[in-house]
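OP here, attaching both records as promised.
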Amino acid sequence: MGPSRSGTAGGTTRATPTRAKATGNGRAKATGKAAGGGTRSAAVKQGHRADRGRGVNLLPSLPFDGTVDGGEPASRRSLRSQGRRTMRKLLDAAMVAFDQRGYHNVRINDVVTIANTSRGTFYLYFSNKEDLLRALVAEAGAEATDLYSDLVTRRMDGVAWDDIRVWIGRYSALWMRYAPLMRAWTDLATIDPELGAQMRKTVDMMSGAMAARIKANNPRLKVDRLAAGVAILAMIDRFHYLREFVGDQVDDDALDTLTTNVHRALFDTSRPV
């Protein structure tokens, strides 16, 4: 997630540049070769449990359980398919409204107009704008938990270029899907202490998992692994933020280059320590 842009969280309307949808595959490109000219190895098979004695115990407990019930009113009843579609329309409309006007300037009327529904319908699913925001953050958090799980359930040693590329591709897709939240997450965290705590816990969770992989892949690497984990997240996040800011696409070439930087710096065991 990235620092808020001046005028984004505050509400300045701006034109959003076209962004290519990132893919999670490790497509073969010249920039994607591991340092030293070697070819990429196959992605490590899933299903292996992380060794608790090799760094994973640094991680906090998961902040999300993957269940997203929507707003407070919706969580008090069982939604049928039509109700879930309506709630989806409101969540999607909120993302558009936050992108166009900034969270602080968005009104309920903006959301229901984009969703082509009524205020009465809105309050069947959400108590207020803050409740709507919490539902969106919970949804993004559930997807972030999947990324975390991918880090800790894969084999811990022998991290290949392809492994990193697939994971960065998935992170990129998450960032672009929730871009209005990602751009302004530090501002949004001040709105609700519980919301801020969830966001910070997610960062700790992801950076800790990355630190565990760095340690297992190359125990002799003399770096602060937790700082390196945060640095990876910050680089991926800020990369998306700045590419969007200057109007450039985050495409496969860009993600391949980003992957190569991460791999060479922290995971390439052929380089001297």
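Record two, same layout:
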Amino acid sequence: MIAKVGRLSNSESDMIHRSKSILASTGLALTLISALAGCATQPDASSALLPDSLLKPAGYSLVWADEFEQDGQPDESRWTYDTSRNSQGWYNDELQYYPAARSQNARIEDGHLIIEARKDPAQIKNYADWGGQDYSSARLLSKDKAAWTYGYFEVRAKLPCGRGLWPAIWMLSQNGDKWPDDGEIDIMEYVGFQPDTFHATIHTQKYNHTKGTQVGTHIEIEDACGAFQTHALLWTPDRITLAVNGQPYFSYENDGKGKESWPFDAPFFLIMNIAVGGSWGGQQGIDESIFPAQMEVDYVRVYQEPDSVTP
């Protein structure tokens, strides 16, 4: 595996604000890998602050998982669907329609969750909340089903390749109603016009793209799309660390100055989706030959220490 790490550019991070779509409807110490250039408002990073590897810590036990073993629709006790902006259109100028429980867009098949983006306007135009979109996809949430405060999270997934796709694995506050004040953790974002790159980003009131103080980085890795990769988050009261295939590349430290910079002492839920187009994902257009495009998820696992198990 070849991996190369870099800081999220201002043009990239200016485009990352998907969380507003859910929330409209429903002194920080920043650590980044090696000598990465950053905003003047943010302290310099040091690779010495990152561990050599990131695996499930000793003493953590499995508290929640989906292994996607039963073919059919995703388990409704674990997942729900976000359809909130279909009729109005999604934020970031995204072009997809997200149906609920439509097997063409979300299903379990051969031990994997399939999230599938399609170009099928004739098939979706009769939905009551259709907003004129040409593309369909799925956006699955564990909101109101499962949420956690702290833990080790692991998602093994294979992303689709193709210009115009924008898949993501991320988290928002279960009880929050204001972005970015209540926080966002982007475990992984991928845009198809950067075929070998994963992005990791944190959003807070103090650090977000609307102020130009965004906190993010990226890692370049062979087979970022088209092959299974394991994305991990270790979230403690003191620090958030993100990794791919056991290699940490992003860390964010609690400075102890309160919610403005650290809103991460509350339950967060998981989100998995493929967006199509948009102000970031569609920055270089959409290759119409890529559809249907599938994100395959092998498993989602959540581990916690006994003393931090979320009720």
